[in-house]
């Protein structure tokens, strides 16, 4: 009976969260007690606010100034723990009433042994491999005793069963008396422990994967920060070089320019730091909860410990719901930082080093065939295809490299790609033809155009692979199926000529000189944008917004702006960039999958980062 009482007391001295003997026990307002270190971890996991939720009953306790040490200590429990530590442990193997003091504890036998019993125990052949702990190490807290569960109602009975509904261990007698009604699901304690260990391993594996995911995200942010920092350093170096070549009177101007560079780049770095901080906090959150769940050797036995364990496991499961990081935002921020550049004053009388500008790193590429471009569209693999009316499709990478020429003998009037990668070609004879990825012409012919409809037609494809052909003179759009045959329907353009056509979600973007119209697929105009005297050329961005190039052909200037799906202005991307004015008044705008903007004249391809 005394040994059973000791086991009960020992269990009562265990913290429900860490399952070890209480260390600096603190009382919550709901009267439940936990180790101070465990409460610190729980407070940190829930955002370090001043309200702490009890893992057992879920009641909230206010933590003054987020300092757990200011919570009341459980003095009675601390005293009891000290008394238990100071109490001698007597041999539980001796039969005499005057039992000697124990010097070791056998984990496998579950007995405290005095010196004679320990010597005898060591000689038993079957007990040589038993784990024996010195009492000095147990008292000092260096090692933990593995206790055997005994039923509190029937101290001589082991708790060999576990009721999943009641969430508690029970002996066989308790099962018969209390857990046989409908709704009680009783399994062997060993089975529960095995499932519990497996659950902990699964949770740890998920936590490790999630932690690794966010660590990669943080590494990526560091990489973007380094690139932005390199831009800042390069700008500063350029400014310093110009300063050294100028007179001392320019010192003030120099310092102002450096501050402006820092202002423009440090804002980007600050936003990247915030993203990194958020990811690191999630890693800390995952690590703390995962350690509380997985770094334990004991199995929770009583109801409080089980409740605390369930709460912590639930918190970890909630943490898994955090969406994986999106690399797009730091990449865009990095591009914003890298666009800062120093433009030095050259050949100017005014004193000054120069100014800080948002540089547009352009690539200016001459097309292989002069004055021939008639179509441009992104390829399925993320490159850019330029169709030439004199024959062929020229393929360019995002860095401006001319990579290949295909369909050299086909005179391109319009160009597109089906979802499976096949080419859709509108040739100069107004035939609509399909080609394979290997550039083999397919035996699929779509209805061609009449002579009165042939003036500067082009095409676009929607997400359902329907093909739209715009007819200037007839002021209409015909829709074809890639299966071949005549047009399946027509869309009338009421009073305007559809010069260029672009598919956009469930709409079409129509270009007509100085006006852009967004129409639905029945021809109803939803939104309209007009810039008198300028020519407008649209494209769909990778962010699913609308890009519009405004061209002043007579002076050879192009500006590119971003708009919403309602044609409301968002921001300027390129302002009055000087181009080589082409002979033909015909332009195209597209965006690479990697973000670069391609603007094509009849002679040249310009790529804006």
Please name the defining characteristics of this protein.
Herpes Virus-1; 3 domains; 4-stranded antiparallel sheet; 10 helices; 36 strands; metal-binding; zinc; zinc ion binding; Znf_RING
Task: Tell me about this structure.
With 609 residues, the chain is of the alpha+beta class. It has 3 domains: 12-87, Herpes Virus-1, CATH 3.30.40; 208-348, no CATH class; 366-608, YVTN repeat-like/Quinoprotein amine dehydrogenase (Methylamine Dehydrogenase, Chain H), CATH 2.130.10.10. The protein is built from 10 helices and 36 strands. It has a 4-stranded antiparallel beta sheet, with no helix packed on it. It has a 4-stranded antiparallel beta sheet with strand order 14-15-16-17, with no helix packed on it. A hairpin with a 4-residue loop joins β31 and β32. The longest helix has 57 residues, at 189-245. The protein is elongated, with a radius of gyration of 38 Å. The model has no long low-confidence stretch (mean pLDDT 82).
């Amino acid at each position: 009976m005394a040994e059973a009482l000791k086991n009960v007391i020992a269990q009562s001295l265990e913290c429900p969260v860490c399952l070890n003997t209480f260390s600096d026990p603190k009382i919550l307002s709901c009267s439940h007690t936990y180790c101070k270190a465990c409460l610190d971890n729980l407070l940190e996991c829930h955002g370090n606010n001043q309200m702490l939720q009890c893992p057992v009953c879920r009641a909230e306790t206010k933590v003054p100034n987020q300092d757990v040490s200011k919570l009341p200590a459980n003095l009675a429990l601390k005293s009891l723990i000290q008394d238990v530590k100071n109490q001698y442990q007597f041999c539980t193997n001796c039969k005499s009433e005057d039992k000697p003091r124990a010097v070791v504890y056998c984990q496998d036998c579950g007995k405290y042994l005095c010196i004679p019993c320990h010597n005898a125990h060591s000689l038993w052949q079957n007990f040589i491999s038993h784990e024996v702990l010195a009492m000095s190490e147990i008292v000092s807290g260096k090692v933990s005793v593995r206790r055997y569960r005994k039923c509190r109602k029937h101290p001589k009975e082991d708790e060999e069963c576990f009721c999943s509904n009641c969430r508690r261990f029970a002996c066989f007698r308790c099962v018969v008396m209390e857990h046989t009604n409908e709704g009680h699901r009783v399994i062997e304690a060993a089975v529960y422990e095995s499932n519990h260990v497996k659950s902990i391993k699964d949770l740890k594996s998920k936590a490790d994967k999630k932690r690794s995911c966010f660590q990669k995200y943080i590494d990526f942010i560091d990489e973007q920060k380094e690139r932005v920092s390199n831009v800042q350093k390069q700008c500063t170096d350029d400014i310093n070089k110009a300063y050294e070549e100028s007179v001392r009177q320019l010192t003030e101007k120099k310092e102002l320019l450096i501050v402006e560079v820092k202002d423009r780049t440090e804002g980007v770095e600050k936003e990247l730091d915030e993203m990194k901080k958020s990811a690191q906090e999630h890693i800390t959150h995952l690590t703390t909860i995962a350690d509380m769940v997985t770094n334990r050797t004991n199995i929770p036995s009583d109801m409080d410990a089980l409740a605390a364990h369930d709460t912590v496991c639930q918190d970890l499961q909630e943490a898994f719901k955090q969406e994986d990081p999106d690399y797009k935002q730091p990449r865009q921020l990095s591009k914003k930082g890298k666009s800062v550049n120093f433009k030095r004053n050259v050949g100017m009388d005014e004193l000054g080093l120069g100014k800080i500008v948002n540089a547009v790193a352009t690539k200016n590429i001459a097309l292989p065939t002069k004055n021939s471009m008639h179509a441009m569209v992104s390829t399925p693999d993320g490159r850019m295809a330029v169709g030439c009316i004199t024959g062929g499709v020229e393929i360019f990478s995002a860095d401006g490299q001319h990579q290949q020429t295909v369909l050299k003998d086909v005179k391109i009037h319009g160009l597109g790609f089906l979802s499976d990668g096949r080419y859709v070609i509108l040739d100069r004879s107004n035939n609509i033809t399909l080609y394979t990825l290997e550039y083999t012409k397919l035996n699929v012919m779509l209805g061609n155009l009449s002579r009165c409809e042939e003036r500067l037609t082009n095409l676009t494809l929607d997400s359902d692979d329907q093909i739209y052909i715009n007819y200037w003179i007839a002021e209409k759009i015909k829709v074809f199926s890639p299966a071949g045959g005549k047009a399946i329907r027509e869309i009338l353009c009421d009073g305007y000529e559809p010069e260029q056509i672009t598919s956009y979600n469930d709409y079409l973007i129509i270009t007509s000189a100085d006006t852009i119209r967004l129409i639905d697929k029945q021809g109803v105009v939803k939104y309209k944008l007009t810039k008198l005297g300028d020519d407008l050329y649209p494209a769909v961005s990778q962010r699913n917004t609308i890009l519009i190039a405004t061209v002043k052909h007579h002076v050879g200037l192009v500006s590119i702006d971003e708009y919403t799906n309602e044609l409301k202005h968002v921001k300027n991307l390129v302002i009055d960039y000087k181009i080589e004015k082409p002979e033909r008044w015909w332009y195209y705008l597209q965006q690479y999958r990697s973000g670069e903007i391609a603007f094509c004249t009849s002679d040249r391809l310009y790529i804006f980062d």
